[in-house]
Amino acid sequence: MKMKTKMLWRACSSHGSLSVSCMPSLPPSLSHYKFHSNSKSQNFDTLDEAVSCFNRMLRMHPPPSMVDFTKLLTFISKMKHHSTVVSLSHQMDSFGILPDVYTLNILINSFCHLNRVDFAFSVLAKILKLGFEPNNVTFTTLMRGLCVEGKIGDALYLFDKMTGEGFQPNVVTYATLMNGLCKVDNTSAAIRLLRSMEEENYQPNVVAYNTIIDSLCKDRQLTEALNLLSEMITKGISPNIFTYTSIIHTLCHLCEWKHAKTLLNEMVDRNVMPNVVTFTTMVDAFCKVGKVKEAHDVVNTMVQRGIEPDAFTYSALMDGYCLQSKTDEAVKVFDMMVHKGCVPDVYSYSILINGYCKTQRIDKAMYLFEEMCRQKLIPDVVTFNTLIQGLCHVKRLQDAIVLFHGMVSRGQMPDIVTYRILFNYLCKNRLLDEAMNLLKAIEGSNMDPDVQIYNIVIDGMCRASELEAARDLFFDLSSKGLHPNVRTYTVMINGLFRQGLVAEASKFFREMKKNGCSVDDCAYNLIARGFLQNNETLQAIQLLEEMLAKGFSADVSTTTLLVEMLSDDKLDQSVKQNLSKFLL
Q1: Rounded-to-integer distance, Cα 417 and Cα 407, Å
Q2: What is the four-CA torsion angle of 54, 58, 64, 67, rounded to 10 degrees?
Q3: Percent of the chain predicted with pLDDT > 90
Q4: Which residues have C-beta within 8 Å of that of residue 538, sequence separation ≥ 6?
Q5: Distance of alpha carbon 239 from alpha carbon 207, whole angstroms
Q6: Residue 171 near residue 208 (C-beta atoms within 8 A)
């Protein structure tokens, strides 16, 4: 014990932090204990009741056993009131009530949930100082806390330290590390840990396999996921609903419909019944690739099997119809949803609103928005952005601005997407004064405009021939902590070409490359057209050759311009010959 304690003290000082969100295991005898209070139940309806009971326990003479305090803290922790657990633990200390390892494990758990693994590690030091033996729950909790904070390296270090000092991990410990590794996209390391676990004669459980299978599925490594599924079955580990749903979800997104159906039948044969999540996964996948009829068939199958679709199922189907501009069919699904007693949520309404906006039935969208508010549902930023964009698209800019102000007055803060929508339409309609007023308002708020917003404004200024203002804003970006990107340079260069300022446009292009901006196909084509339109044919040809060498090709606009130039009888034949090769 002394050697373990000494080594762990060194680990404490070298790490300074650790955690897990699993609940500490308690002695079997715990169920026979009763609170030393008048409460008839060991559970509480509210936090206040639990805290009141704790305060009564503190003042009892003699005090209740530590088991009673542990039960109470466990209950509060399960209510997710982790700050309260910390506070009550401090009160116990101040009353001189000596904790045990179970109580301290609960405290470690709470610190980890509060993202204070450093404090949790201090509790480990306290366990050792009091002469207690840390257990698997202690270390697994600390490892999980480290994993949640993305400190997987520290979690693995603690694991090595733990096993090196003779503490034996269990299946939960291994599964915790596997989950941490998968969360940081290191699935291969999680698989190696699975093999290591087997070498140490620990039998992986379904949770361990599910963690890795789900991660493989997210990485689209379907073959490896299916191999692990076969391995599970061979070893007598029964896959559960989560196992099958993860793989079916990936099969559907890879359009492997036949295999998805086969796996669905296999799970039924193994008495693992598909649930609403499994079916909704298939509905959503079918809808995303335009197979709405098949998605509707899945919903019908659900109902036939006695599984009621939920709001997510109906919303996925509605979205599928809206993606095909079949808003009326989506409305029928919405009505069916209501008829079946499934209450629509903000997401359901937002899907329909988006469908109406895309088909330019903006009045219908606004009516639905008002209906949503009458149902006491609070529109989120996505709902507002959808409507604002829809209004702008049908040139009802003033209504969009009124809705924007209404959004703010309702306490829903606009996000960067909201502002991009407004700036885009203000600048396209050459309402630069309004755009600049809005820009100043944002700059004076807590939200910092990103470079995309400045790109929109600079482009609007250039299109309105406000070149000097565009230059000033461009050169002012660095003072705002922003750097021009390829789009910023491109809109500036395009504006200069429009004014015939070829030399300055060329200078901006050189600076763009010098500053490390990777020139994309859009930039190459736009700048090449600028040279051609300003009769700088030689520079255009050099740029087009560079563009081809980079693996890009002339786009539709550039090709159209080249065809027009080649049809010009006044153009020199040698120039025509050089330009024609870019059409091959």
Answers
A1: 14
A2: 50
A3: 51
A4: none
A5: 9
A6: yes
- For the stretch 259-283, pLDDT in tens is 888 898 888 888 888 899 999 988 9
Angle 236-242-246 (CA atoms, 0-180°, nearest 5)? 110
From residue 177, alpha-carbon distances to 12, 140, 164, 559 in Å are: 19, 9, 16, 56
Task: For residues 108 and 20, give the distance between their C-alpha atoms in angstroms, rounded to a whole number.
Answer: 8
CA 102/CA 141 separation, integer angstroms: 12
| Residue-level pLDDT at 372 | 92
Question: Considering only CA atoms, which of 375, 331, 369, 370 is closest in space to residue 350?
Answer: 369
**Mean pLDDT calculated for residue range 2-7:** 46
Q: From residue 221, give the alpha-carbon distance in Å to each of 185, 189, 247, 261, 332.
A: 12, 15, 10, 19, 38
What is the number of alpha carbons within 13 Å of residue 22 lying toward its C-beta?
17
Per-residue pLDDT at 24 exceeds 50? no
Find the farthest-apart pair of alpha carbons in the chain and give their distance in angstroms, rounded: 109
**Segment 330-337 long-range contacts (CB within 8 Å, at least 24 positions apart):** 330/355, 337/309, 337/311
Residues 222, 251 contacting (CB under 8 angstroms): yes
| Distance separating alpha carbons of residues 70 and 24, to the nearest angstrom | 10
Please report the pLDDT score of residue 368 as a whole number.
94
Nearest by Cα to 387 from 429, 430, 358? 358
Is residue 20 pLDDT above 60, yes or no? no
Q: Which one, of 162, 61, 166, 148, lies nearest residue 111 by Cα?
A: 148
Residue 480 has pLDDT above 70, yes or no: yes
Q: Which two three-digit tokens encode residue 236? A: 């007598």
Cα distance from N-terminal residue to C-terminal residue, the chain: 80
- Based on DSSP, count helices (H) and strands (E) in the chain, helices before strands: 32, 0
Average pLDDT over residues 111-127: 91
Written as six digits, the tokens of 71 are 């039960």
Residues 217-221, mean pLDDT to the nearest whole number: 91
Alpha-carbon 521 to chain mean position:
30
User: Residue holding tokens 């910023």?
Assistant: 488
Query: How many other C-beta atoms are found inside a 10 Å radius of the C-beta of residue 212?
Result: 24
Burial class (CB in 10 A: 0-12, 13-18, 19+), 569: exposed
* Average pLDDT score, the chain: 86
Cis peptide before 62 (omega within 30 of 0): yes
- Please determine, for residue 41, whether its predicted confidence score (pLDDT) is greater than 60: no
pLDDT tens by residue, 379-388 = 999 999 999 9
The beta-strand segments (E) located in 355-487 are none
Quick: pLDDT tens for 88-106.
889 988 888 888 999 999 9
Instruction: In whole angstroms, give the CA distance from residue 379 to residue 384.
Output: 7
> What average pLDDT does the segment 529-552 reach?
90
Q: Nearest Cα to 579, choosing from 540, 530, 521?
A: 540
Selection from 17, 19, 6, 24 nearest residue 128 by Cα: 6
């366990």: which residue's tokens? Answer: 127
